[in-house]
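PROTOCOL LOG
Step 1. Enter all chains and additional molecules of the complex.
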Amino acid sequence: MALSASTKNDDIGPETRLELYRLQVEIRDCEKRAYDLFLQNLIKGTSHLSLGQEAIAAGFGVAMKKGDKSFCTYRGHAHTLARGVPMEGMLGELMLRDIGLMRGKGGSMHLTSVEHGVMGSYAIIGAHLPIACGSAWRAQYLGEKDVTVCFFGDGTTNIGAFHEALNFAVIWKLPVVFVCENNLYMEYTPIHEVTAVHNPAGDRASAYGLPKIVVDGNDADVVYRTATAAIEKARNGEGPSLIECLTYRHSGHSRADPGKYRPPGELEEWKKRDPLIIYKQRLAEFGISESDALAIETESMRKVEVATELCKASPSCPVELLTADVYADGGWAWRN
Amino acid sequence: MAELSYRDAVIRGISQEMRRDNNVVFLGEDVAKAGGVFKATVGLYEEFGPLRVRDTPISEQAILGAAMGAAMTGLRPIAEIMFSDFIAVCFDYIANEMPKIAYMTNGQIKCPLVIRTGNGGGVRFGAQHSQSVENWTMMIPGLKVVAPSSPVDVIGLMAAAIRDNNPVIFHEHKALYATKGEVPDGEIIDTLGTAKILRKGKDCTILALALMVHKAMDAAEILARDHGIDAEVIDVRSLVPLDTQTMLTSVAKTGRLFTVEENPRLLGWGAEIASIVADEGFWDLNGPIVRITTPHIPLPAADHLEDLALPNAARIVDKIVRVMNG
Amino acid sequence: MAQTIIMPQLGETVAEGKILTWFKAVGDDIKIGDRLFEVETDKVTIEVESVVAGKLTEIKTGNGVVAKAGAVVAVLGGEAAAPAVAAAPKPKAMDAFEEVKTPLAHYGKAQTAGGLRITPLARRLLSQGNADMHALAQFAAAKGLHRFEEKDVQTFLSAAPVAKPSPPPPPNFSAGEVITLNTIRSKTAQRLTENWQNIPHVFQAIDVDFTEIELVRARNKERFKAETGSSLTYLPFIARAVCIALQAFPHINGRFENNSLTLMKDINLGIAVDLNHNGLVVPVVHAVQDYTLQGLAKAIARQIDKARSGKMSAADMSGGTYSITNNGAFGTSFTTPIINAPQVAILSTDAIRKKPAVITTELGDAIVPRLIGTVGQSFDHRAFDGAYAAAFLSKLKETLETKKWAGELGELT
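Step 2. Run joint prediction.
Step 3. Record the structure below.
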């Protein structure tokens, strides 16, 4: 790939920028494909798309190092792909096929790939914040240098586990980064209608002695810089961070939700601030050629097509898995 | 051999395993510097230090979540939930997270941890600090559940629980902490999923758990002495895995089954065992399976009322005699 | 670590065994190979040897007590001081929809027409004791029972036989000794009843001329006895001819189960052996399709010896695909045997004696004395038809009468 000369004061650099763009494009294409497959009835159950929120997953995905651990929610397709998980593992799990990350046993809401540091997607709001604390505690206790990053939505800030985890992480000075994706809606209800403060995460930070960090979650450069700083702080043993990223989801809460509760024009306004539009302009600003961006887009679509075909060709998992792995011995025997 | 209290057995079990494996860590409310509200963890902080024995805020979800996250990534944590009633405030981890992570991830993740908790009544603490909640944990696939009745079992089952690669709920009985028993010297390791026949008998089988084991043993002596009924008493010890073979074999011999349960009646652990024996052991039954439980009420604090509510030897004897001779 | 001793699986259809005698006591040191206990099953009484070593710390199944196959009957431990811990539950392969296995046997109704309620255990014991339910109703009514339990079963079954309403006893009738069936007898009774009731038996027989075989047998019996210590009887000739005929008619070497017939590759012959009128056992000689007469004779002799001395293992009694019963020693003319399910046929051989026979000579037909025996077979008509079974008998006869037996005995011809 021919990299054009970068322009002034570029702290990020063309290679990282192209990586940020690639991840955002691939997440976007993959999520759109997930939506198409859902319309074809090839994706069963539920699924929660991150269309419009790609910059956060990409920014953190590039900032995290191999070995770092990430914990996310049921809206976790993007965060899973951002750690380098192959598309067929993610799409295959949504389609509940044998090729899926968990061979169809977990489904859309529990994407996990330990080898990529994706320590799970959690479908009970708030549950994974304390669990992320535990992962960080293990690193601290064993002197391992990995950092744990924990993603959640704005709605999570109103559940008890959020507050328990924040307090716990601060008093134990754990190497964990909490990332709130504020997309303005807890499921169907505007977050401001149900939250005492304006910034659901940012305005709570001071309660735990943390600085208020609220950033533009649709600008991958901003996310990347913020992520890098917070991860560095955690890795240096200086404790946790709480970051609120402002963003907007282009689709409804889940596949069952057309998002009719949104005021007219809101979606259109946010679509002008689509992270992919922002970032394609950014590439141009920094002198990265149109053809490099195009090459990423073409390759992304090719990967999505290949992954889709692999998934369609994959069988369901063998029925023996019904009772496998209930216990650590691989079985399920509860009696003799 | 030495005589040891149930409380000191908890300390000995944990310290035996912490000495053996550096990945065993311990967290909970007031467990470190204060040595635990039941004084069942005294000395651990002094021996193993502040990195391995940690006090937490009153945050049951954070305690169990942190234990789980650490277990998933390589440690073997022991978490204390001070009173088992408090399981209700962190039930998400016990019901949804710990027991399902291995299954949902197709075996990618294991969760080797122990949740110790003070269970049961008889100490006048009232309705929110006295419950026997072992059935809350028994009903969830993916958990293991034990409830020892003696100091030696506390040590052996604690060691087995810590070494097990699954989430294990370890119900310690509050009313037993002060009781004593003979304990052999040296390392003690027991096996999860094994019941123990404490008294051989031929006329009926009595199953009991934790504090109720002692009531059942008292009852068996009275039954033999005053009523000519020779009862076999089995300490169930482990609800999951469940040693059904020991129970079915005993019922095949005696033809009669009684359970003595501290929990309120509906869906207590004995109900599941009764259903298994009524099914597989049907043609060995020479009479109805009878459950002796606390009535289906919250526990009162008043001593005379609490004593009335919990099964005791007299009530067990009375019931068995009436059923056997009726 | 504690080790356990389990009740062995003594034969494929044996579910339990009764320990008759323990040879060891708690506290004894056990070595591998030590005799542990004698166990009686429905098939045989044998001694069980230890396959583990250690100090015997607990006997769970005492003398006279029945244990299911696989049940722990004793525990060997290291230190005697250690509390005896039950064996760890082996995480067995559970069937997803049979976590609890409901027994499929039925032992009658919980309530009689007269309103008597019978406990499940009592019903099972009554059924297994072949109790007369009419007599039971009378017994209960006489005692004023509304509920019938295990203890009532014992009283009822040990009570004097209740007189049936008719016919009146013959004059001078007096009951003789009542023989309580031992385990082997009662289990045999149960199994034979099932087989007789469930299998549509057909019996066919054919006369076989044993004159030529007798000549060969007479020439070789001294040498055979000297070499093997066993007598050379007609049985191995018949068994060898059966092997040859079965290979020509493979459906007869089959198992009929679940409405289908499985043809077995190996021929495993069961040889019925009478234990001095104290029971019947059927040791099996395995995979004998290619044995010579001499080899087969030795194998059969060895198994019969084992059976008579009570030294058979579970394997010695299992896996039969065809059975032979021989009552000829008592001079019987023919026997109609009961098939040993899931096998589909059983051969009976009876007395071989000189009979006048018509032979064809150059001078015309002549009546001469020949050694003739009747060979009969009961077969399961569900598995095949009469013509097939008859063709098998014909092949068997032809083989017995015309095979060059001398060669198979290693005799120089």
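Step 4. Note key features.
Residues 55 and 79 of chain C are 8 Å apart (CA to CA).
The two ends of chain C are 64 Å apart (CA to CA).
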